[in-house]
Amino acid sequence: MSGPHALARLALLGLLAAAAAGAAPPAPRHRTLDGTPPLIIGHRGLPGLYPEEVIAGYEAAIAAGTDALELDLQSSSDGVLFACHNVFLSDTTDVASRPEFASRRTSRSVDGAPTGPDWYISDFTAAELKTLRVRQPIASRSKQYDGRFPMATLEEIIALAKRTIAQHPGRRLYIYPETKNPLYQRALGRPLEEALLATLERAGWNTPDAPVFVQSFDPESLKLLRRLGLRTRVVQLIDGTAADFAHGTIRYDEPDTARPFSWLQAGDPRTFAAMVTPAGLAEIRRYADGIGPWKLYIVPARGVDANGQPVTRLADAENGPPTTLIEDAHHAGLFVHAYTFRNEAEHLTRSYHGDPALEYRTFFDLGIDGVFTDYSNTARQVLDAWLARSRPHARAAAPR
Ligand SMILES: [Ca+2]
């Protein structure tokens, strides 16, 4: 046998054999680590439209087609895990207008940095926190839901995810908790790691295939979770202080963003830059399944003004050539979830002309495994359109 007809017959025989064996025709593969479409990670719910980390915002993110409910873990004084980005409450709640809590205002040292005066979550019981109402902290975003919703607990978010999965079998929906300031919270006597692990155990979700990603900027928190018996997927977040627009690189010159606090405390001189080298990625692979880098580690931003001075705003910078971080991470066996994607023009380089869709498509084309986004609605629309465009090529190759 020779020629195109013979090849077509061989292909057909192969297809029949696959059908007889019960195998599905090959699904279109993507450049992600596992070949599935990128994940839309609803960063703090849907904070582009709702206050951060409230059940109503997570429900809106689910309705908008998010794949994951991202949250930051903070412990109440009686050890209940709440979803809140900061260790203090003044920016995201109405605590400052509550006379019964006026005397709780104080200053603290958080991971070596003086913080406050403010109201600290760790000084409030769960019942007290539940009396507060959440508000939108970003001036340019809608305040229409301010004062309406209470803070959410980790258990409530798990229950929401379980309800959604039960109602929509086959739907992809993860929870994505972050251990926040873990050494600070341990020093207060309310360690996050033990509480998170106990909650996941109670939920029946401490398994390798549970719909859970656990994330932290601090490798010691993730390594401790592994030692305590965490079996879910784990993500090492990778920070930096600011963009160096002159060189298209990242600066490391503030103590709280240059390196994990455990490194600072141990006198380890390395910065987060050490994590994106091949050796750093191999080290991360020993305890984690993926990395969560700031997006400028993948598509750098750079630019100089008419006087030859570096620009000072992201919106005035241009994209530089992409780095090899995604392929290097994939080569090490790590997926890559980049943060944070936002619609507002101030968060986009000039190369995207104010259109967040162009930024998503740039990262999807590069093989990103997931995007942390404040706007799951936009990310979902862009991803669905991107998938519809990439699908015909895969289908055309398959015989009818
Ligand atoms: Ca977070």
Short descriptors:
globular, 15 strands, TIM Barrel, 400 residues, 13 helices, binds calcium ion, 9-stranded mixed beta sheet
Description:
Helix 2 runs parallel beside helix 4 (154-167) and helix 12 (356-366) packs across helix 13 (376-396). The longest helix has 21 residues, at 376-396. Strands 1, 2, 3, 6, 7, 8, 11, 14 and 15 form a nine-stranded mixed beta sheet that branches. A two-stranded antiparallel ribbon has the order 4-5. Strands 9-10 form a two-stranded antiparallel sheet. Mean pLDDT is 92; it is low at 6-22 and 394-400. With 400 residues, it is of the alpha/beta class. It has a single domain (30-87, 141-396), classed as Alpha-Beta Barrel (TIM Barrel), CATH 3.20.20. Helix content is 33%, strand content 17%. The protein has helices at residues 3-20, 55-63, 126-131, 154-167, 182-187, 192-202, 219-228, 255-258, 261-266, 278-285, 325-331, 356-366, 376-396; strands at 39-42, 68-75, 81-83, 106-110, 113-118, 174-179, 213-216, 233-238, 242-244, 249-251, 290-293, 301-302, 318-319, 335-341, 370-373. The structure holds calcium ion (CA).
